[in-house]
Design a protein that fits this description.
By secondary structure, the chain is an alpha/beta fold. Helices cover 42% and strands 16% of the residues. Pfam families: VWA (PF00092).
Length: 191
């Protein structure tokens, strides 16, 4: 992602924070972590509640080690869930959003298998969003058919993050383990 695309992604992260900030309960229950994979894989935001979240300014850089990023994100998520279990804290099924405008430049098949196993056992809800020229076929292989990849319409990151905020706010008001229907990605994405 370059230029306008990365600027819109950054604006979308701010829109997410602003939207969730309108819901006191969601601000305390929704945690965010951000793993980037432009060039190198980095955890640029460790898990934090929305009330403490300051959206980072993301940038682009080189290759797309998506497989490594997925593995690191899933490992990091497992560590967080373990902390909850050790402290007797119930938690909601975590959501992972993978957003890319390209395709993996590393080995990603093992990471995809981990995603599919986690989805099968209801340990994670994994969403893939393709931007501009993203390889949607590869994103479909990564998600394994559990959720269809969504192709972002234009650069509608703000709409996507407002949708995400509303969806997560709804979940935050439910009981952990309760099944919730998600609204369609109307206006921001195409399946």
């Amino acid at each position: 992602m370059q230029g306008k695309a990365i600027a819109e992604l950054n604006a979308g992260l701010q829109a997410f924070k602003d939207s969730v900030s309108n819901d006191e309960l969601a601000m305390q229950r929704i945690e965010i972590a951000i793993v980037t994979f432009g060039g190198a894989v980095n955890i640029v935001q460790d898990f934090i509640t929305v009330d403490q979240f300051i959206p980072p300014i993301l940038s682009v850089n080189g290759l797309t080690p998506m497989g490594e990023a997925i593995d690191i994100a899933l490992d990091h998520l497992q560590e967080r869930k373990q902390i909850y279990r050790e402290n007797g804290v119930s938690y909601y099924r975590p959501w992972v959003f993978l957003i890319t405008d390209g395709e993996p430049t590393d080995e990603w098949q093992n990471a995809a298998q981990r995603i599919q196993q986690a989805e099968e056992s209801k340990k994670v809800a994994f969403f893939t969003v393709g931007v501009q020229q993203a390889n949607m076929h590869t994103l479909k292989q990564i998600s394994g058919g559990y959720r269809q990849p969504i192709h972002l319409k234009g650069l509608n990151f703000k709409q996507m993050f407002v949708w995400l905020s509303a969806s997560l706010s709804g979940v935050s008001h439910s009981i952990p383990g309760e099944v919730m229907a998600l609204p369609a990605p109307t206006g921001w994405g195409e399946v």
